Amino acid sequence: MTLKPKRVFSGIQPSGMLHIGNYLGAVQQWVQGQGTKVNFICIVDLHAITMPQEPAALHRQTRELAALLIAAGIDPQQTTLFVQSHVRAHAEGCWLLNCITPLGWLERMTQYKHKAQRQESVLTGLLDYPVLQAADILLYDSDEVPVGEDQKQHIELTRDIAGRFNSLYGETFVLPQPIIRESGARIMALNDPHAKMSKSDFTRGHAIRVNDSPDEIRWVVKRAVTDPGRDITFSADPARAGVNNLLQIYELFTGQSRAAIEAHFAGKGYGALKTDVAEAVIEGLRPIRERYEHLITDPAELDRILAVGATQARAVAEPKIREMMAKVGFVLPTL
Ligand code: AMP
Ligand code: TRP
Fold first, then answer.
1. Domain check: are 222 and 319 in the same one?
2. Nearest CA to ligand 1 atom 12
3. Catalytic residue among 6, 37, 152, 199, which?
């Protein structure tokens, strides 16, 4: 008997330039997982518009993100890379799932509460965001969802929604597992190691973007907030979050073991740590930046890759949406 290869699905918003938190928490895992599993990576533009977006910027950032993902190692031969709005089943699936999801489940999502707090008027789409995410995942019978830690609650909600649909209408969905790394699950801001690195914070020094110049990377790392201690060791102590964050970044860019890293820095000071971290980040990002500069000059080729991805994605998502509609009791349109 041959085992069915596992299905992997993840998504990322085209709402701003990728930072090293996105790269280390999510994208690097997606790249490393290619080969043995069936991978779907979705550029989630429907999710992006749950917060106000400038249309021209959204349009540009969608291709930029596609180019960056390919530059970072997403291989369109091994991964179905596509844009969410190109596959209508996502919006349709969201609607069907909306109609079995209690409002209370959405109101307690921490990401929603956090984003809603900062807005004068909260958009309906923002509250509904996790249901659309559930549709994304469930349409592909995904077994695994590799994400950063901030998405754990959304994957748990997806399991609850799938379970509810299954119990109302009969076995339809696979219950997905979140896949969260030990290191890199939550890369912290360099100017504040108690806040998550975020796409929406544009303060200089907060984040390193994947296409920042070497000089900018050195500037940001040099000013990274550390702590008054001296030890350069991995630690879960909140008082040492700054050094721990720098060490995790170093670990993930160099691929070295924690023991080797601690030995390397033994007896050295924070100045040396920062110099080495900056150089490791620069070297790790250099090939990505070079490939990106090349890919972004050919939008027609990017569009061609995304069109192939959309065709492959539809081939999976369309039969699934028809199965959902049939289970709910709809008369299916003839094909
Ligand atoms: P987003 O930019 O919100 O679309 O996130 C894309 C992916 O990056 C998701 O899997 C997030 O969980 C992950 N991610 C975002 N910020 C961080 C961070 N600071 N550390 C680790 N992973 C992150
Ligand atoms: N909500 C995710 C984020 O902001 C993006 C996303 C949308 C996603 N759909 C998904 C992640 C499906 C995993 C699976 O990071």
1. no
2. 148
3. 199
pLDDT, residue 110, reads 96
Widest distance between CA atoms in the chain:
72
Query: Domains in the chain: how many in total?
Result: 2
Ligand nearest to the CA of 84: 2
Atom number, ligand 2, closest to the C-alpha of residue 26:
15
Q: What is the CATH number of the domain that holds 283?
A: 1.10.240.10
Residues 309 and 262 in one domain: no
Domain that holds residue 133: 7-179+299-328
Task: Indicate which residue of 196, 274, 320, 327 is catalytic.
Answer: 196
Tell whether 264 and 314 lie within a shared domain. no
Cα–Cα distance list, 96 to 5, 52, 83, 124, 255 (Å) = 28, 25, 21, 16, 43
In angstroms, what is the C-alpha Rg of the chain? Answer: 21
Say whether both 156 and 107 belong to one domain: yes
- Point out the ligand nearest to the CA of residue 18: 1
**pLDDT of the residue at 1:** 58
Quote the pLDDT of residue 17: 87
Based on the residue annotation, tell me whether 196 is a catalytic residue of this protein: yes
User: Parallel, antiparallel, or unpaired: how do β-strands 79-83 and 177-179 relate?
Assistant: unpaired
CA distances from 167 to 89, 164, 170 (A): 22, 5, 6
Q: Using CA atoms, how far apart are residues 222 and 271, in angstroms rounded to an integer?
A: 8
**Is 222 one of the annotated active-site residues of the chain?**
no
**Any catalytic annotation for residue 37?**
no
Q: Which atom of ligand 1 is nearest to the CA of 151?
A: 12
Ligand 2 site, residue 61, Cβ cutoff 6 A? no
Mean pLDDT, the chain cut into blocks of 10 residues (335 residues total) = 85 94 95 93 97 95 97 97 98 98 97 90 94 98 97 98 98 97 94 94 95 96 93 94 97 97 96 98 97 96 98 98 98 91
Global pTM value: 0.96
pLDDT of residue 118: 84
